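Researcher: Go.
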Amino acid sequence: MPRLLIAVGLFVFLFVSAAFAGTISGNLITDEGVSGPAYVIAIAGELDVSSVFYNSAMAPGPYSIEGTFDDADSMYVIAVLVEGMMPTSGSPAGQYPGNPFHTSGGSATGIDIPLSDEGAFSGRIEYSGDFSNVYLAIYDAYGVIMGGEPSLEMTVPVAGPDYRAEHIPAGPKTVAAFVDVNGNSRWDDGEPIDWYRGAPTAPIGADTLGVVFCGGGIEQDEVNFVITGIARASKPLNFSIANYPNPFNSSTAFTYTVGAATDVKISIYNVKGELISVSVNSYHNPGTYSFNFDASSLSSGIYPYRMETNYGNITKCFILLK
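Model: Structure:
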């Protein structure tokens, strides 16, 4: 139990300042039919053991937390319904809508906390590229409580720079925005990414990342990101082109695969290197495409063709026989 509550304290960032023995109290509010034991945690000061105060209570119903509170401190109070030994992602959770607040003479009343099994957050993503392949990666951070790493819970496509992520299972999350270069709807090493680093914060491995607490009470609305550059993924991307039939006598069908969002240009040349045709010249999202090429006006011979992308070029040849 102490390990759980101390670790939950890592999910909040605030600052510290002679204090009064007092009480913070209020009510836990749940949806109809939802009830059970809950942990209620009040956090103040620097992120150390002495800044975390807690108690258990039955939800719905009243709660109180006794402690030594400094009126100068910014206070955050959160609550989590316990299902089994510890809460898990989606366990009803919430925080006081007035967070952060200050005690008066070391006490505060009316600190009511609505609990919900899901929440939302919003913000802005600064990115100069196409948003059709930008996603949010949302990680369940409860694992950090046991000294582990966050686990990927979901990826959410983003339609534009101003976004709102809804129906996110309740609990602490670490969140990143990334460019899905590989087209597999998840982040791969080497793809452009930015992690949320705003308050509250928690140590994640060797890094310190911001934590988004989803549930009732407050919707964090400044979960912002800046994605810079268009990086090439460290593992090979799937780019290919071929034509069939080959050889052929009048027309052939080209099929090509684009492994990442990029500009694509497909050009056909004669053996002297002279340009015969630019069959494709446009921006592509990841996928497989095709087109037919009419060679009825050309003489028999070997014709090189080249597919050019932001990630490299592919050159092949076809043979025209008449």
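Model: Residues 2-8 form the longest helix (7 residues).
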